[in-house]
Amino acid sequence: MSHLLEVIDLEVKFGLRFGDLTAINGIRFTLDRGERMGLVGESGAGKSVTGFAIINLISKPGFISGGQVIFNGQDLTRLGAEQMRDIRGNHISMIFQDPMMTLNPVLTIGTQMIETLLAHRQINRRDAKKIALEKLRKVQIPSPEKRLGQYPHEFSGGMRQRIVIAIALITDPEIIIADEPTTALDVTIQAEIMDLLQQLCESERTGLILITHDLGVVSQVTEKMAVMYAGKIVESGPTDRVVGNPRHPYTQGLIKAIPGNLQPGARLSQIPGMMPTLTDIPPGCAFNPRCPLSDAICRKQEPPFVVVDHQTREVACHMVNPEPSEKTP
Amino acid sequence: MSRTWQRFKTSYLLFSFKEDRTAIFSAVVLLVFLITGLLAPLISPYDPYDPANNDIMNSEMPPVWMEEGETAFLLGTDIQGRDMLSTMIFGLRLSILIGCGAVILQGLLGIVVGLLAGYIGGKIDAVLMRIADIQLSFPYLMVAIFISAIFQVAFGIGRYEELAVPLLIVIIGLAEWPVYARTVRASVLGEKNKEYVEAARVIGLNRWRIMFRHVLPNTMTSVLVISTIQVANAIMSEAALSFLGLGMPVTKPSLGSLIRSGFEYIFSGPWWITLFPGIFLVLLVLVINLLGDWLRDVLNPKLYKG
Amino acid sequence: MTIAPTPRTDQLLTLRNVVKHFDISGGLLDQLRFKNGRLTRRRTTVKAVNNVSFSITAGETFSVVGESGCGKSTLVRTTIGIYPPNSGEILYRDQRIDNKNAQQMLPFRRKMQMIFQDPYASLNPRKTVMQTLEEPVVFHNPRISSADVRQRVATVMSQVGVDPKWAGRYPHEFSGGQRQRISIARALMVDPEFIVADEPVSALDVSIQAQILNLLMDAQQQRGLTYLFITHDLSVVEHISTRVAVMYLGTLCELSPAKPLFETPRHPYTQALLSAIPKLGRPASQHIRLRGEVPTPIHLPSGCVFHGRCIHANQRCRGEIPMPKQVETGVIVACHGIEEGRI
User: Fold this and answer.
1) Would residue C326 count as lying in a domain?
2) What is the pTM of this model?
């Protein structure tokens, strides 16, 4: 079965003065139409870089050093600049963390929305304006006609992020990549924005790759997820299974470290140490110095992907045994 | 001490310097200039300020590679019979002295004003910045003429010649301190709201201590960046003043005065009197500016990848 | 009448009717406006903290929660003396500290310290760790010997989990989590009783958060510290707090011990806030939706500041500011609806 997006063994390196550093070391996942997927990890894990790599937005000194990103049958890593421009903002859109950085402060939002449309479609201004209004209504901005002529600073943080979502949706893309879209927002606004995103993805059948460090948000909005550590995916599978029954020691540690799941006042379970920086990734399994289960083999060999949980999930760990196939009576 | 040296050796600053050929070239040339200026009394063939050396019979001799040139005077002589090379070396020394002196004065004054205005804010800020604006609106040339003329009239030419260097330092220093004040003030405004300043207040430190011991060191980067440009500007200002006859007196010529004295002869007659000091001056200012550019790029936090 | 808590001997810190407004009108020229043919002066004030009162008991962890613009940052900075309040009183162990000059505040500065949110901006980039840590000690104890200072620095650094050998390094050589530990060390250097923590873990990853929170809780136990904690992360609040105050637009909405607050939130804003927290494994869209947008603290709504977004608002809510009233032991709520028994 062919997927809408297929990332195969993607590798991204940074060429620095003392050598090349590997930021992403061979990750793979797939995304289908309308599927919502979460890419979870802490800072430095490489999740944002993954998002940028998919639409080939990695800036020097970074570069894609290997692997493929197959979208609708085409390998995006091999496309020229002109063809990539056709894909970006058109078939695959991206939403960033800080709406004030995404929106140009000196242009009205109407200009920014219409500009995006005109860049990708052969339509006249009037029709573009109609589509812009329709999208603004879809993201629940009240009195959109008046709002089109306003500047970003005249909106609150939550509304700005809605506008950013509207711009992302304006060309009816097949996939939206959302990089920490709600981290800069208050909790009540965050809940609304994530709701909105989920609704829109469902109604428009848009695929979503949600990049975040917030496990709570991921568990509410996504159907499947992948956990990243030091440039690799360590666990992936359906969201409720991964969160409900994590198999990789890192995922387990992450979930246990979240307060709210313990007796108040008790010491939080903590993962000792820190995620390694790109320059000192240990040999073997990158997590082994911090792992409670680590053994000799973990220090020597990189762990293979093991299929568990009735064939639904993959875990990269030496210490996890593949489950025998379910014996149905 | 060796830890600092270690840090320097592996720093991005050194790395970027080694990569940038323009920076290396400029630094080398500047170093040569500085050493020349510093050691002027030792390496100069003659002492150009000693009237005994100025034999009018030797005046207007061309450089050594032209006919009528003599090896005693490598780059020729000026209209008073002074050896061009010696005069230029001493002139270089004067330029550097006045340039650096003026910048130090500007810097001290400007930094203190900027710090007070930026940190204390309110009325003090308003008053100090208005003074800076007024200062900037006086064209420094006009101020220089004014002060120069008054001084000469009041104290006579002899006194003027003795005090020319400090006087020029003061004039140029006072003309440009607002540049430092504004830069430092902008920097301070940015640092003032950072949490380490709040932390210092929570510890109980008084505002003077916070200003000078906490905030000021963090503004030094921007000060360093504009300092190179300001030195170049100060040198140019002194040259311009001397060219107009308001700077260094005839008995102690700087590069600017030399250029002036040979100006009418550029196209006919001893053209070397203007050309060589001119080239010297341009080269000096150029390498300072180039180094300044490199420094600014290196210290720019957004470009900084170390 | 407002319920202003009367200070008792075990109350470490008391706030009474504290008000803090900021005048951002700018210079004279910025204020002038041409309206209806006349030149008028327009003053703009940010009403950050509006009539807040509460007491903190020694040894407890008192958390203040709320979203951006609620005034919690201003509140704690006013409490610790970075800003003077416009009106109201702040008492530390029954002594007023809001009207003291810098010299008189010095003994209090030794007892009250603060930890900040941004690990990258809270340490002076030009000072080594040693210089940053020794400064508070030397400032408050000028006669202390340098050997003693070094010893203390090493001890505190070990206590927060940073290797004392690195005291000669600069902040940029450390990670975010380590810098936050150094910030905590700085606060602990003078051996304080009371620490204000302004979002100390918000800028850190989840696994580092856990380490820092554990560190803070350990320090509290070992030293008998009292914390005033600000955060927007309610799951952190639930875990470490003794009592919680919920703020909205500079006003205290609800004040309650932690467990009852999370089990039975009273104030409509608290209910909405709690329902919005994404909980692992719970499906979304169950949260309470608030109408409208957050108003700015420059133009405060009349009456109850929350009335514009509250589904229970009535005429009285629009006109009259609700006063905090005790609903049951230890639980204070400022809401007409609760008072009238409507909610």
Assistant:
1) no
2) 0.83
